[in-house]
């Protein structure tokens, strides 16, 4: 069993788990996913535009619009979501489960100035499985607290190739991304950060 390089408020962090070649190969696979299911700009239920752009792969994708947050079987433009890249499934099998595979791989793209406010991942039906998160491209300042929004938080800069596993009591920890260091990585030629989160929806 592979051991995390650090833990932060119960989250296991595997720093540098993907090497540069694996990261480049995955970016190529993600280009195909995004061609088939383009990134879109979600809005919150209150109509506020989120600063990240997103899409999904897998049986279900996560969407947010005026009707709220939910998982659905189709992209807002109507197509089915593409398959989750096999290397992403392989990572899940190494760190979470050989047999119960994720239903959704949410793909977030952070351009210059994008961030994500403190939130819990709780639109899933089943919280018994961890959420696995992989960072690619520019560094992002990730913040994590506890199960209550008011709990104290800690932060870590996530680099390209780092993986997080949020399971057990940390499955419902509040977390977010305060900012990215735009241009800090050369993985994406035009800069930016990609985060993939794999989820069992149930
Ligand atoms: O970008 C990240 O590292 C976190 C993304 C996230 O929390 C989410 O998509 O729910
Ligand atoms: Mn989240």
Summarize, please.
The chain is 13% helix and 35% strand.
For this entry, give a set of tags.
single chain, 202 residues, mainly beta, Jelly Rolls, 7-stranded antiparallel beta sheet, 4-stranded antiparallel beta sheet, 2 helices, globular, binds 2-oxoglutaric acid, binds manganese (II) ion
- Bound heterogens, unique: 2-oxoglutaric acid, manganese (II) ion
Q: Which architecture would the CATH scheme give at its second level?
A: Sandwich
Average pLDDT reading: 97
Number of strands: 13
Total helical elements: 2
Question: Could you describe the 3D structure shown?
Answer:
This protein has one domain: Jelly Rolls. The longest helix has 17 residues, at 20-36. It contains two helices and 13 strands, in the order ββαβββαββββββββ. The protein is mainly beta and 202 residues long. A hairpin with a 2-residue loop joins β1 and β2 (11-14). The two termini are 25 Å apart. The strands form three sheets. The chain has a seven-stranded antiparallel sheet, covered by helices on one side. Helices cover 13% and strands 35% of the residues. The protein binds 2-oxoglutaric acid and manganese (II) ion. Residues 106, 108, 116, 121, 133, 135, 140, 142, 175, 177, 195, 197 line the site of 2-oxoglutaric acid.
């Amino acid at each position: 069993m592979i051991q995390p390089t650090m833990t932060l408020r119960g989250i296991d962090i595997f720093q540098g788990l993907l090497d540069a070649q694996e990261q480049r190969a995955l970016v190529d696979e993600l280009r195909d996913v995004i061609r088939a299911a383009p990134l879109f700009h979600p809005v919150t239920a209150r109509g506020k535009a989120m600063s990240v752009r997103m899409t999904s792969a897998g049986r279900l994708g996560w969407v947010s619009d005026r009707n709220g947050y939910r998982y659905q079987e189709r992209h807002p433009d109507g197509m089915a979501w593409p398959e989750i890249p096999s290397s992403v499934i392989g990572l899940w099998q190494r760190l979470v489960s050989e047999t119960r595979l994720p239903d959704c791989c949410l793909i977030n793209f952070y351009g210059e100035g994008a961030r994500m406010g403190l939130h819990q991942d709780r639109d899933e039906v089943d919280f018994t499985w961890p959420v696995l998160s992989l960072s690619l491209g520019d560094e992002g300042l990730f913040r994590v607290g506890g199960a209550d929004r008011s709990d104290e938080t800690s932060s870590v800069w996530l680099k390209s190739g780092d993986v997080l596993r949020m399971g057990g009591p940390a499955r419902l920890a509040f977390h977010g991304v305060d900012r990215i260091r735009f241009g800090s990585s050369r993985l994406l030629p035009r800069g930016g950060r990609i985060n993939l989160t794999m989820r069992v929806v149930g």
